[in-house]
Every structure is written in C-alpha cells, then in structure tokens.
Amino acid sequence: MSSVNTRQESTVVKYDFRSIEKRWQERWRADDLFRTPEDRSRPKFYGLDFFPYPSGDGLSVGHCRNYVPSDVFCRYRRMRGDNVLHPMGWDAFGLPAENEAIRRKSHPKKTVPQYVANYKRQMNLLGLSYDWSREINSSEPEYYRWTQWFFLLLYRRGLAYRSAAPANWCPSCATVLANEEVHDGACWRCGTDIEKKDLPQWFFRITEYADRLLEDLKLVDWPESIKLMQTNWIGRSVGVEFDMPIKGHDASMRVFTTRVDTVFGVSFAVLAPEHPLVAQITTADRRAEVEEYVRKSRRISEIDRMSTERERDGCFTGAYAINPVNGQEVPIYVADYVLLSYGTGAIMAVPAHDTRDFDFARRYGLPAPVVIAPDGWDGQPLKEAHTGEGTMVNSGQFSGMRNTEGAEAIADWMQEQGIGERRVNYRLRDWLISRQRYWGAPIPIVHCPVCGEVPVPEEQLPVLLPDVENYEPPGDGRSPLATIPEFVNTSCPACGGPAQRETDTMGGFACSSWYFLRFADPHNDRAPFDRDKVEYWLPVDLYVGGAEHAVMHLLYARFWTKVMYDAGLVPFVEPFTRLKNQGMLLAPDPKNPGVLVKMSKSKFNVVTPDEMAEKYGADALRVYELFVAPFEDTVPWSEDGINGCWRFLNRVYRVVAERPGSFVPDWRSTVRQETVSNEAKALARKTHQTIMKVTRDIEDFAFNTAVAALMELTNQIYDFVNAKDGLHYPCPVWSEAVETLILLLAPMAPHLADELWQMIGREGYTYSAPWPEADPEVAKADVLTIVVQVNGKVRDKISVDAGTSEAELERLALESPRVQGALQGRPARKVIVVPGRLVNVVG
RNA sequence: GGGCGGAUGGCGAAACGGCAAACGCAGCAGACUUAAAAUCUGCCGGGGCAACCCUUGUGGGUUCGACUCCCACUCCGCCCACCA
Question: Nearest nt to A236, CA vs C1'?
C-alpha cells in the first residue's frame, strides 16, 4: 500500500538539479561563503591546485579530475574545523598564452582576460570553493613587479647571471628554452625539433642548490615516482676528476669518471666536438677531417644526436694523451657521444668496461684491454663490455683487488700523488630563464656602456611590458622588445647616462615559482608578501596537479623557496608538504576508432563540464569524477557512468524529499533508545561505519570508495524505509542516517547537500557545519559471521556473538557437519583461530 | 638501454596475508504503463541437474591460508635516456 503512495509521490518530487545548483551558487556568492577566515585561533589548512594557464579552449571534464578532489578535500577540512585557504589564480604569462593569441590573430592582453573569465565561470559552475578575493594573475603588473623583485634578489645573491652558451633554440617559437622544456629533443609546447644556438642568455644558478634539492626530497610527502624523477634529473654522481697531459703540448685534458677502478684500461680519450681544446691540439693532417666532423655534429638535430640507435662515430685528432696512472699514450678522438655540458666535456675511454666505449673501439679498431676480470673469466678478449663487478687485473699495484675496493684505493692513491681528486657531478644544468618573446616579465636589468650590467632599482619596479600592437618574435634571436626604441632606450640607474634595457623576458616558470606565496597576501603593494602571513599559511599542505611538472615547475619552485629561506624571507625549506598527482582522463580518438587517447582539444575528443552540468548537474559530474576510478589512475571517460551517479543523487534526494515531516531535529536525545528493532540497529551501525569509512577514505584520497560507501548507506536507508514505511515516522534513526548522509556527501555534492540541509530544517550551509563524528560502539557489530575453513578452503560460515572466545570458536568449528565431512574422519592436526574473522582447521 | 607503475567478470573497479568480484555501468527477466522514458523487484565470472568443482596475466616459492609477500617471465602504460 504505502509503496504505491511512494511511487505516486516520486513522480511529483523531482530532483531539479538545475534550479538547485543555480540557487545555492547564488547564495554562496551573496554570503561570500568561501572567503578565507582571518581568525588564527584554529589550525590552518592550505589546499592548492597547480594554477592553470587559461586557454581559449576552456576546461574539459579531464581538468576537473584535480579540481574536484582537491575541492572535496578542502571542504572536508573546513567541516573538520580548519581555517582553509583554497585559492585560484592564472599562469597567464608565457609561451602557451602568447602562441595561442598569435594563432587566433589576437593579442594576449585581449585573450587572457576573456579566457580567465571563462575558466572562472566554469569553476563556479562546478561549485568549486575558491576564495576569489585572492585571485591572482601573473601577467598583471601588480604581480610581475614582484617576479622582477625576485629576479633582483637572485641577482644580488649571485644566482642570476648572463652568459653565452649554446642554448636550446626552438625555431617555431623563435626563442630559447630551458633544458627542462626540451622533451625528446623537441619543444615541449609545439613539438618542433630543437637546434643549438649561441646567444647570450640569462641563467639561474640552480646547480648551486643541486645537493639540497636532492637531500630535502626526504622531507616531503610526495609520490615516490616524482621524487625519483627529480633525483634522476638532478643526477648526482660521485667520481674522480684528473688531467691527462697532451703529448707535445703544454696543455692537458681534464676528464671525469665514475669508474676510476678501470683507469688502467684506458685505450683512448674523447673530447666533445665543441671542446675548446679540439682546435688547439688537432694535427695539421687531421684538421680538415676534424673540422668537417665538428661542423656535421653541430648541424645534426638534438633528437638525432641523442638517439641510441645511431651508431657512435668520431674522428681522430692526431693528438695523444698520457694516462697519468701508467704513462701510456692513447689517441684522442672527437666524438659527439661526449657532451660538452656534462662533467668536463672530455672522457677517458675504457672499451672493455663501458658499452659506449666498446662500440666505438670496435668501429675504429682500438684495443680493449681487460682490467676488471669477470668472475670465471677465461682470459680471452671480451665479446661485450663487462660493466659489472670483478677482480682487478693489469692494474699495477691494485691488481688482485675486488674492483669495488680498488675504486676507493685508486682514488685515495691518485689524491695522494696529486694526480686527481674526488669530485661530485650533477646532470642538472643551470636554469635558462630568458626568452626572446614579448609575453613575459621583462628582465629588470639595464646595460650601460659605462657601468655595464646594472640592476633596475627596486623602487623603479615594475619594468612595464610596453603596450604594443605587434608583438610577434622577429625570429633572428632578438626579443620583440628589442625593436621598440621607447622601451630599449633609458638612462643608467647608476650614472644617469644613456643606456639600454635588457630586452629578453623571463620564461613563465619564473612566475609560477613563487605564486603559492602570493596567495597568503595577494594584494600587498609594498612587498611580495607579508612574512607574518606567509608564516601562518605556508607551506602548502596539499598540492594537487599533473605529473607532467615533475622536473619543471616542481623543481623550480623548490629552488626559489630555498633561496628565499637563505635570504630570511620564509622559515621553511620546502614549499609543498604533500603532493598528489591525478590520473588522466582518456577519450576515443576520432582518427583511430577503438583507440583511447588523452582527452584534449587537439584530439577533438573533448567533453566539457558545461554540457555535463547542463545534462546531469554539477553535483553528478563531481561525484562521477570521484567515483570513476582511484584518483591517481588513468581512466576512460564514459557518459553511462555519470548517469549512474546522477541516479544515486536522485535517490538521495528522494529519500529525504519524499518524506516531509519525518525528520526529528532532536534525534540525538532519543536515537539510541530506539535501537530495539534489528533494522534500526543495523541502520545505526551502517551510519557510524560509513562515517569512519568516508573520513578515512577522504584522508587517503580514496574518493572512489568513499562514494561507494555513501551509495551503500543510501541503499541501506532504502532497505530500512521499505521495511518500515508508514509505520514509525517521525523516526530518530532514519533522521540520524539522513543527516549524516547529507553531511558526508556535502564535500562531494555540495549543492544537493545544502538543499537537503535546508529541507530537514537546518540553518546555514553544510560548508560550515561540523563533520559527523563516529561512535565506535554503535559501529560495532554484535553478531559476527565467522568463516570456517578446512585446509584453507571455505567450508562453512557460523554466526556468533561478538566476543565469543577462541576456544568456543574452535569448538563450534569442529562441531560443524560440513567440517566433519571435509575432514573425512581425519583428526584436526591444528586449528588456527583469527578472532572475529575465521577458523582454519588443518587436517 | 635504464627506472617506475600496472595486469581481477562484458566494462570502471573493491578486497589490514583470512568469505575474490563491494559499489557502479552495461545486459537479462519481471512489475507499473496504451506505449516509451523514469522508477521499483529479481538475476547477472565459468562449469555442473545437483552436492560440488574451477577462476585474480604465466611459472615457481614462502605460509595453516596468497589478488596481496618473494623470485623468474609475458604483456601494457608512464618517465628518463650517449650523463662518462
């Protein structure tokens, strides 16, 4: 009977998410609900998303995979009583924004504000709880003034310098790039192959911090894979550096090796093609060939040069080097498998014990004397390089030692003899920061013919980016700013004479290396931030974004933070305490049917949050983003899935909305007395178990199982309602379950939660309501199902009261007819009892 | 070439070393509908009439007990890659 009524009501009670979501978003905004509290009596929580570069394509549902979970976490912490800082801003300076404006034949000054407005609209549509009063934009003078200020800080501390070196040049973007921005020999933005170009460039001396950047990874709670990528990128290696005198010259070539144990096996030496010694030592008869080789290796693209498929080639210089440990003369080659930028740009080559040297030696018929005998070596020449351990042979007084000890002994001996010294090398290079592009913060330096390089005084900041119509790069290695005389010509801050401004701008990664600090004090016009505010809010407690920034932004930001620490500006050495990387969202590739690729505008497979919010609602989209898979997992998008989440929210809505007047506001005072019925007891138990489960899961970023737990609770509320409807309303246990469900759901589906919150007669917003507390006693089951196994196979299940003794459990298990049957008359040799869980009879 | 992940129903997935497949999607059957949608109920890894047997990429090991731990292999994904 009552079910018929319910069904009729259900056609009337409609989950009208469109009006619900619109209404609550308006109220939140009118009440300025998400403004960060200034009260310092409560613990703070700083939850931050990687700030995005606003693209004209807008957000896709793929982008929501980090914004939604971090929003859930922040809302949850707010309900736990923390002061939450959850800001958003725009990484608006830099190549991506500029390239996009060029492509659309517009100007970044016009496009950026449009795109920002669209992103903001979409974020609000999703109900993200950002405090917009702290919004920042890295392309505005109020912001980049301080980026320039930090440049000067680095400059004053000797950490910013100008130097001419072969740099990574992207011919398409017409600018140089940092090493971190070159992926597989190509530009990370446009994919064009990188060329080497000699230009005077500005660098940040990040190498000076290599050891600390490596060491302090111990202090942060980050995914191991990201820490490892940074470790590899920094690439610390310990070895020995020594000079090899060059026969017939006053000069010597300095080499670095991590395998000093093989030093007696050197049969040739190699210089990088760009090495300055090449021109000096090449003999007359070899000159033409060597010059041709050097030219050729300079022409070859980075991508080809790095390929390991390519056969290693080189060219003999005609000169010989002397191995200082045994006086042996070895030929010196030029080869592009040796890089000028690493170590000393020159190596000793030991073909028997290095695969690259082995290949090279074979090609040019060079000897490969064995000095580390593999275990069980037959004395014959090796068929491939032996790079593992072994016993040292043909190594003077070190012969007979294990190579691992020999390495130490030789290093000691070389130091004593003054031949060489221990040395640590890093693969990390200094960070190339200048860009020959318009859309960035101008580097605040003036070049004066009298005083030289002069920093712009702080009080003259910002050095404003000139407002011009044509900003496209000239492509000749100069910045577009160099073509604007009004910008270039200035007076020297030191002597007042005529001088010229630096015309390069800073790469976008300078802006993003400190923005997280600015959110603590976003409108300060006297300093980048107030130290007191930064001390309260920082470091960032939770940082959420993609793994693609592992060795770019995340490394640079750590470096700047350490510089600030050294300068006494901040009291911490690591900016981001806990880091989480979301998984990608895949979608079908329209060009390859059946193939899934990353969802992106360039693949023409984007689904927007706008269309999903229109069709299913922002709450359903939020819940689906959480439910679809574990947070870190890459997963395909499916519209069927979001429909399921919509149905779930619909059920939540109806179970409350269809029972007006059933809610007992004061359920707390009576709820524990009603637990006489088994259904009521079961529902109360489930309610408290769900509080525990959802709380733990959110803390662990296991949002998918948190949603599943809420679905289970909802299902059980329906079971309860179906068993009891028409009997006992108003009902305290139902009220407890419903209020708890609303609150646990609030961080995930905040609009619906607030609607239901109001419907049950509660005041205010779920955002500021306290998080439910679990009563472990209520959550505890009083009857347990114990699994009974025989030899590890499930044979029976028995129901017992919680607290049944182990002896009793053993007795009950042995009594079971099915256990007896499985034993087939054999005696139980051993019985394992896991209290509250299982009994395993071994027989 | 090196490193790091991963592999469980038709699909996304769940499972402190202790009932494999929770939760959801898709599917099937039914109820309500003139009908459809929505909603509700039931079924939903494989085999077998059944009791029962089999099933977490492959092969081994540890354990009373292994999706889980260890070793080897296969496949997939991501990252790095001539770094001396």
Answer: B83
Distance CA A68, CA A128 (A): 7
A237-245 and A420-425: which strand pairing? antiparallel
Per the omega criterion (within 30 degrees of 0), is the bond before A539 cis?
yes
**CA-closest candidate to residue A688, choices A716, A647, A730, A655:** A716
With tokens 């080499």, the residue in question is A255
Distance CA A73, CA A582 (A): 14
Q: Measured from the CB, is A146 under 7 Å from any atom of strand B?
A: no
Phi, psi (5° rounding) for residue A630? -55, 145
Whether the CB-CB separation of A506 and A443 falls below 8 Å is answered with yes
DSSP string, A48-64: EEPPPP--TT---TTTH
Q: Which nucleotides of B are covered by protein (CB under 7 A)?
A: 1, 3-5, 11-16, 18-20, 22-26, 32, 38-41, 52-54, 64-66, 77-84
CB neighbourhood size of A121 (10 A): 12
Distance between CA atoms of A749 and A711, rounded to whole angstroms? 13
Lookup: tokens for A430: 């200094």
CA–CA dist A173, A187 (Å, integer)? 8
Quick count: other Cβ atoms within 10 Å of Cβ A219? 11
The answer to whether residues A833 and A806 touch, using CB atoms and an 8 Å cutoff, is yes
User: Which nt has its C1' nearest the CA of A697?
Assistant: B14
Q: How far is CA A214 from CA A97, A159, A234, A702, in A?
A: 32, 18, 7, 29
Beta bridge partners of residue A800, listed in sequence order: A784
Query: Residue-wise over A648-681: b if at least 16 C-beta within 10 A, else e?
Result: bbbebbbbbbbbeebbbeebeeebeebbeeebbb
Give the span between the Cα atoms of A329 and A321, in whole angstroms: 6
Strand B interface, A 181-210, C-beta < 7 A: 183-184
Q: Using CA atoms in the order A741, A743, A745, A748, what is the torsion angle rounded to 10 degrees?
A: 180
Nearest alpha carbon to residue A312 among A255, A385, A363, A352: A363
Separation between the CA of A717 and the C1’ of B53 (whole angstroms): 38
Question: How do A505-506 and A452-455 pair as beta strands?
Answer: unpaired
* Token code pair at residue A707: 């949603």
3-state secondary structure of A12: helix
Residues A685, A776: Cα–Cα separation, whole Å? 9
How many C-beta atoms lie closer than 10 Å to residue A531's C-beta? Answer: 14
CB atoms within 10 A of CB A826: 11
Q: What is the largest CA-CA distance in chain A?
A: 109
- Looking up tokens 């027989």, which residue turns up? A843
Mean pLDDT for back-to-back runs of 10 residues, chain A (843 residues): 35 81 96 92 94 90 93 97 96 90 92 96 97 97 97 96 85 84 79 81 93 92 90 90 94 94 95 92 94 84 59 90 95 91 91 91 92 86 86 93 91 94 90 91 96 95 92 85 94 94 94 96 96 96 89 92 97 95 85 77 85 94 94 88 94 91 89 76 93 96 96 93 69 93 98 96 96 93 87 87 87 86 82 89 85
Give dist(CA A399, CA A27) in Å, integer: 82
- Report the candidate in A620, A637, A631, A753 with the shortest Cα–Cα distance to residue A73: A631
Cα A133 to Cα A38, A121, A462, A519, A586: the distances in Å are 13, 15, 23, 10, 34
Query: A748: which 2 tokens?
Result: 């995930």
